[in-house]
Amino acid sequence: MTKFWKPVLAMLLAGALALSGGAMLAKPAASAASKTPASTAADLQAAPVSAGEEFRAVWVATVYRLDYPSQATTDPAVLKRDADEILQECVDLGMNAVILQVRPSADALYPSDYYPWSKYLTGTQGTAPRNGFDPLEYWVERAHALGLELHAWINPFRITKGGQTEFDSLTADHPAKLHPDWVVEYEGEFYFNPGLPEVRAYIIQGAEELARNYDIDGVHLDDYFYPGSGFDDADTYAQYGVGFSDLGDWRRDNVNRLVEELGERLHAIDPNLSYGISPSGVWADRSSLPQGSNTTGGYESYYASYADSRKWVKEGWIDYICPQIYWYIGHRSMDYATVARWWADTVKGTGVRLYIGMADYLADNADPKSPWYGTDAIQAQLELNDTLPQVTGEVHFRYQFLADSQALGGLYRQWYGTAEPEEPAEPAHLNTADHEAYIQGNNGLFRPEASLSRAEAVTMLARLSVDGDGNPLYTGAAGTGGFSDVSRGDWYAPYVAFAQKYGIASGYLDGTFRPEQPVSRAELVKLISSYFEVTGGTAAFPDVAASYWAADVIAFAAEQGWVSGYPDGTFRPDAPVGRAEAVKILNHALDRRAGERPAPLPFTDVPKDHWACDEIREAAVSHTYQKTDDGEKWLTYDR
User: 238 in helix, strand or coil?
Assistant: First the structure.
């Protein structure tokens, strides 16, 4: 779509939509005679929408049983029930992936040769569910049955979250007990030492176990690497830091080695496995590093956790990056929009996908003074994401916050297209009373002979639609109509959603709308006729058989005087309709009488002797009028 036609379409479509009324993409009458090949308008009807390429995921946390399971238990029935409930809710919210925390603290929610069973699962570390039940296997099978991807989320270095008491309670076969020299205490918690090659090798082997034993779709690392600058690894640095004059650079290199090798080893097992990391949102401030973001005074993961996430992207060591951008748009020091755009620029040309980690846990705040009041902040972020081509998905933190918030659930059901279509309070009507301009050009051009696209047609009709009292119906509300090839960032998305809602247009059997596809003459007539009660008549054109899917509306349009045939008597129903021709048809359906007028024509590519000059002027200039026996007299017009 050229820049020219975006504004032109806005007006042209305002007319085209009224024109097609629902016919262009409307489902035909259910009769054997009305059936037509899938490539034509007759098969246009509602159909399940495929997920497309956009990644829509939810983090499901198991540490402290935040999301799963609902209680510590060895009972497979409870563990299955909880999994089923979460997975089905994710489907209902419009998600297509779940990121399940399978290794929250050097423990496992699956039988592992490297880590003991998690106490968060069964209540006691090392205790397995009854009857040999494998929760991860069940999650993978059920997720896939529901059309969801399942990504295994691991925390690489954390051992405990409960201090010395928890550490003392670790099972005797826990790797931290078997290898106490791997362990570093930091601020009362315990971590594996990233500087030890044997620690990194062990973590990689544990991840390989997942890739070999389960049909998972991805392996996901969170943002916990080094816990802070005071980490006690001086002896390790002395032993392994040869060649590094800076402790920070050495620590970052340790994390880099893990990130790079883990990706290589996982892809050697399964080249199609998706490997990604979710670092804290800000890599570094520009005041700290020249390549950094225009942020100030916050948590810089490059220094705070020694996570050189920008390098992982630039080197292509990962398949996707999912920065946790947990600030609102307009934040004084860490503005969401600034950080999101920085990441979009960072991934350009790398082949690394960018998913945004969303702060759902902050949303739906009850305080009207909070920037997170309601869901407006989250919606604004989703809208911004749609304007950034590099953003190909979102991941939401975390499941329980979505499940507990009716407002968030409603937002995502609407945003991701799973909400039940809202029934309009009344049908749409064509605005035949007001003669407002419904087409416009760009740089003085109209391109009268160019074909009209489906998106352009529904845009015109949406803008020409009014209620029974003549009030405009189109509000510009966000939506996609549920079509897999219409994204919210597309200029025509709200028009398509409007047309779908009011029955003006639906899609093809494969769930697509095909917005850029040219509209045929038959489709345009069908769209317009959806605003009318089609009655009687047979097509008077030799190339429109009585069994043709749009024969009745073509005959109706001919009887109403909207259309006529070519000099050879044919109608050519499947031929693309040109912009000038579409305007003429629409003018006739609106009962707008074109003629020579005093207003100048606003387009340089439509000469006075063009066959549709008067029709185009009628559609392009707003005016008041008086009907006469000869047609129409203009009283005033916009100059």
Answer: helix
Tokens of 146: 């529901």
Q: How far is CA 474 from the centre of its chain?
A: 23
Task: Determine contact, residues 623/434, Cβ cutoff 8 Å.
Answer: no
- Is residue 278 within 8 Å of residue 287, measured between CB atoms? no
Angle at 458 between CA 566 and CA 45, to 5 degrees: 90
CA–CA gap between residue 193 and residue 305 (Å, rounded): 13
CB atoms within 10 A of CB 53: 11
Strands 631-637 and 623-628: antiparallel
Q: Which of 9, 12, 20, 7 is nearest to 520 (CA)?
A: 20
**Beta strand segments in 73-182, E:** 97-103, 149-154
Give CA–CA dist 530/520, Å, rounded.
16
Mean pLDDT, contiguous 10-residue spans, the chain (639 residues): 31 31 28 28 28 82 97 97 96 94 96 98 98 98 95 96 91 97 96 98 98 98 94 98 97 98 98 97 97 94 98 98 97 96 98 97 96 95 92 96 93 79 83 90 87 92 93 84 79 89 84 91 93 80 90 92 91 95 95 89 92 93 91 89
Contact call for residues 147 and 94 (beta carbons, < 8 A): no
369 and 485, same domain (yes or no)? no
| Residue 551: strand, helix, or coil | helix
pTM for the predicted model, two decimal places: 0.69
Rg (CA), the chain: 31
Number of structural domains, the chain?
2
431 within a domain of the structure (yes/no):
no
Last residue of a domain, which of 366, 383, 415?
Answer: 415
